[in-house]
Protein: Adenylate kinase
Amino acid sequence: MLKVNVVGTSGSGKSTFSRKLATKLQVPHIELDALFWLPNWGETPDEQFFEKIRQETATERWVLDGNYNRTVPVKWRDVDTVIWINYSYTRTVLQAVKRAFIRSLTRKELWAGTGNKESFRKSFMSKDSVILWTLKTYHSNVERYESMMADPQYAHIQFIRLRSPSQSKAFLAKL
Structure:
C-alpha cells in the first residue's frame, strides 16, 4: 500500500480512518475536501481542483481521503489501494448526525484558511445539509463502488471493503 484512496459516504468515518492509516504508514494524509472548499463555502473549479490533486499526489506515498466521483480519472491514475468504509446505513446516518451536531456546537473551522464552519441551520435545516446528502447518496455510493470493484478497468487496484468499526480497527492493528 503506497498510494491509497479511502472512500465512503459522508459521515462514514473516512477522514478519521484516513488520518489513523496515514499515521500508521507514516505518509501524508491528503483530504479532498480541504483541496476543494474555498472560503465562504466557495467551490474550486474542476480544472484547478484536478490540478491540486495531481500536485498533492505527485509523491511516492500518500493516503487520499474522499470521494468526488468526477475525480476518479485523476486520483486513481496511480492509486494501488482503495479502502471503502462501508458501514451500515443506520450507523453512517447516525455518525453524520452526531458529527454535524458536534461541529455546529463547536463552530470549529473545518479546513484551515477557509473560515468554513458548520452551523445548526446549515446542518439540520438546509437543502445543503450534509445529513441530507448522506441520506440521499448512501445507496447510490454502494451501487457505484460495488460496480467499480467489479470493473476490469480497475483490476490493478486492490479494493478493501470495511463494513464495521471493528473491522477497521482490526485492519489498522494488523499494519
